[in-house]
Amino acid sequence: MTADAHELLAVAESVLDATSARAAGIQQLTEQLSRALTPADIGRLTATTAAALIGADACAAYGRRDGADVMESLHTHGWPGDTRAFATIPLHRGRPMSDAVLTGRPVWLEDAEQWRARYPEMAPLGVSQGHEASAVLPLRVDDRDLGAVVFSFYRTRAFDPAEREFLVTVASLCAQALDRARLYSAERDARAAAERERDRMAFLAQASRLMEAPLSVEERLRQLADLAVTGIADWSAVHLVRGSRVEKVAVAHLDPGKIEFVDRLERRYPRDPDARGGAVDVARTGTPVVLPEVPDELLVASAVDETHLELIRELGMRSAIVVPLLVRGRSLGALTLVQAESGRRFGEEDLTFVGQLAATAALALDNAALYEQQRLVARTLQTALLPSELPEIPGVSCAGRYLPPDPDLTDVYVGGDLYDVHLDEERGRWALTVADVCGKGPQAAALTSLIRHTVHAEVRHGLRPAEVLRRVNAAMLRHRGEARSRFATMAHAVMSRDAEDVTVTLVNGGHPPGLVLRGNRVEWIDLPGTLVGVFADLDLAETEIRLAPGDTLVLYTDGVTEARGPAGFFGPERLAAVVAGLAGRSADALADGVLAAVSDFQRGRLRDDVALLVVQAQR
Length: 619
Fold this sequence. Notes:
This protein is α+β, with helices and mostly antiparallel strands. Helices cover 42% and strands 25% of the residues. The protein has 17 helices and 23 strands. It has a 6-stranded antiparallel sheet, sandwiched between helices. Strands 8-7-11-10-9 form a 5-stranded antiparallel sheet. A 5-stranded antiparallel sheet has the order 12-23-20-17-18. A hairpin with a 2-residue loop joins strand 17 (514-518) and strand 18 (521-525). The longest helix has 51 residues, at 161-211. It is elongated. The N and C termini lie far apart (96 Å). Mean pLDDT is 84; it is low at 8-18.
């Protein structure tokens, strides 16, 4: 065999050895990448294992999130000095990594001269510390730009076609692993976020039930503070605005000894009632405060002396969030949550959830005030307009609600809206009525009383709903006198139940259409019908509705759908969405939820009175 032949054979054997080594390296890298779960793990393997396989002296792997204008470092290896300044790199054409990402094509720089010729601005950095050649490859899967990887070499390197193909293959493996890791991380984060949101919604539901309990305002707030430390905070406190001062009404911790410690601390260092800062300022200004880290300077500023400061530090406060108890544009106080020994932290992302919790408490406080106001209205309406209580119906839950207009927006405190449920004993059925008399004041109240008592009288005769409305119409025409403009809209029904379902026969006299909630699906009941009290003859049609267990019928006055807020009218579409969102709630909770939505839509200032009747077939 000639010398040339020996030389060719040696070259062939060397190529085969290199090819075998690369194939084994690819297999090893593939196995390691398959076990990596996070983008950081992929970046580390790319910058170490993949770089070693390629023979690179240094490597930097960067990721790009969903078309962002910057890339973030996943891992760097082999670069001397502090690389923190390159933790993020903006995408900018005319730079090798940016060009690779934006074009989707590798950038090959075989020596320092090519660096200086193609990227003169970046060359001092690219060939620093003795580096010569660089291969910059995009990390790309299909049409998704995931980032880029830079392999750098101390020697010049001619990237022949075979080596370029090999480097592209390595980058492709890393890109596919990075794509999978991102999907896994996104799925894991989404699952964790969903679980956290589920827990928070359950907590808010529990807090809402607590706020609805027949307790005094202060007892409700004390129980709310106790509830908060069972899962979302280590400490909690509630302050209320009382006149010109802000007073603490509740403080809670799972360890009674710590509460006693705070009591002793406050007795030893009583707080100036006129002092500012913290919950006091939040209660007065209505502006929330989030402290991911409680700075020691804040403790120093609040301490009276060194002993006081030492005792405050013993509480171990790490993070805090303080939100106002806001309702109808007013701050009633503040809710404070503190993280201490658990080591957890509050962030801006927690503000919405804690704000919802505070809103629940604020609504409870405001409802207490509204209740007192409604009692004044009820003294006028009790005998003429509204039933003192709704009857208990086997297998059926009923909830009736009435809200007067905001006293700041009207001089009239007697409205013309009516809801009623009463028993027809002789036939074992119940009559349902919701009506809205045009106008307000004593005349409207008198006409409403006439409607209610006429319905009671005619139902006892066993008349069908349409005939009852005709009798009411005749009575209104007889008694309207000079009040020619007085009329009413009415929805009237008779309800009976059998062993399986509840049957409602409904008629509508110019009234807004009712709706039925079945599961989380809303069905409208839009019946034609003539206004009551205007024409001698009424054009009416009856319809029969079957309520299966869990189904809910909602009747209401136009104060709901015609409520005007900053976004225009509340409207039937928004009402349907609100009712659907309350699926699964009790009749009382659904009625309260609709009223709360209407009130919030008008920023707590109702321009018209609202009547609402909810009838739910029990499961």
